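Run log, item B.
One chain of 74 residues. Sequence copied directly from the ordering sheet:
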Amino acid sequence: MCLAVPAKVISVEYPFALVSVEDVEYRASIMLLENVQIGEYVMMHAGFAIEKVNQQEAEETLRLLNEVDKHSIK
């Protein structure tokens, strides 16, 4: 199963952005989005930023993912 996760844009050098998911940085393609800016949040899936989201939505999604992780079998 693949999952998109929210990531904060740290820097932009089209066609890529450096994004952060809970202090872990990744390189993501931003070719599917227009006008991606530093400080914005994007949903990242398989190395691609696929949608912009607001900060509240990003934080709530991360909170829910962390909650699921706490209850998963490892």
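Observations after the first pass:
- The chain has one domain: 5-70.
- Residues 30 and 49 are 5 Å apart (CA to CA).
Flagged for discussion on Thursday.
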